User: Fold this.
Amino acid sequence: MQSKSPQKIVVIGGGIAGLSLGAALGDRAEVTVLEREPHLGYHASGRSAALFTETYGNRLVRGLTLASRRQIVDGGFVAHRRGALHVGWRGDDAAIDRLAGELQALVPSVRRLSAAELHALVPVIAEEATCGGVYEPDAVDVDTGKMLAACASALKAGGGIIRTGEEVREISRTANGFSVTTGTAVYPADIVVNAAGAWVDVVAGMAELAGLGFQPKRRTAFLFDPPAGADISGWPLVVDLHEQFYFKPDAGRLIGSLAEETDSEPCDAYPEDIDVAIAVDRIEQATSMRIGRPSTPWAGLRTFAPDRTPVIGFDPRLPGFFWLGGQGGYGFQVSLTLARLGSALISGGALPADLAALGVTAAALAPDRFLAMAPAP
Ligand SMILES: Cc1cc2nc3c(=O)[nH]c(=O)nc-3n(C[C@H](O)[C@H](O)[C@H](O)COP(=O)(O)OP(=O)(O)OC[C@H]3O[C@@H](n4cnc5c(N)ncnc54)[C@H](O)[C@@H]3O)c2cc1C
Assistant:
């Protein structure tokens, strides 16, 4: 009996979303990843703060994150047991108490810290300035470079192909599937995976589909030196309760960020001097640190669906067109689970049992949720 030839799947986007799904598909399909830039992880995936926190995002995002922990740990992707600390200021007591209650209900190891405990953990925050905070001890730094490289290796080990420097310019329907055209080649595909990060709606437009309303939002970060003689190795990610800034240790220095969400077109995001200056000022006002001139500023786009939940699944308007977008500010913490789910959806398998147990359904993540109200053609 003649065996059925494996499906040809073209994945558009060589960030963590596209690479992790390509890796999860393994040798069950002929996977080709097309990335416009000269190297993988050039956009959002090369610009993140690399934190994994189980208290971040809405209920579905937290479910996806919880389901990823084992793979992140087992894969050797934990770079440091960092911890995450939400800091309240004078007058914020009620808000901090409320947040502590909410986060403890989600993650029992979360603790309410007094002002003295917070100052002992992060001595650059004066005891008199804070009302204490909410501490998540099990938040970790992820080795994002290792994760990208591991996904790329697994993809290739499964027979997959990665082409960098190839921008997809056209997606057309053929009798058997799709024809995906780049500047240099044409790729036939049974399935097209749209993992184009900030460009997901642009790529949908190439297939003549209206976008789902994704919004890229710029976030700025930079590096600075810790105070002379300070041992910052045990500092957690420190985030202002009002999300006006954050900072965290990174390889002996500190990453600072304005924690902003500025709407942007899809583009190669660059940092605005004013955003860096505001972040420096806010961190200096809140701590005893004097940053002076920060170095290596960068910006990246965090892309959100209208309900801030990732979108994964086939588009009911165009058979074979698969969405994998809207990873927002949590792409690394949710990607391995989304990849498992995507692989199951593409190969007609069941929803992973651990996800179902966490109350995450395929329907809640499907693109259909934005199409229900669309007028009939
Ligand atoms: C400052 C900042 C801090 C962050 N901090 C964290 C954090 O602490 N923890 C966390 O989990 N996440 C964090 N994130 C979010 C995380 O980085 C993203 O969610 C994730 O990287 C998104 O991955 P992606 O593959 O969807 O997008 P991308 O990495 O942007 O990849 C999409 C790729 O598609 C390619 N592409 C687009 N159009 C085409 C085309 N026509 N043809 C070919 N290729 C195309 C692009 O070139 C791009 O490389 C942060 C992001 C930023 C910017």
In short: The radius of gyration is 22 Å. Residues 12-18, 34-37, 41-45, 47-51, 167-168, 195-199, 203, 219, 221, 300, 302, 327-333 surround flavin-adenine dinucleotide (CB under 6 Å). The chain has two domains: 7-47+144-211+307-370, 81-140+215-304.
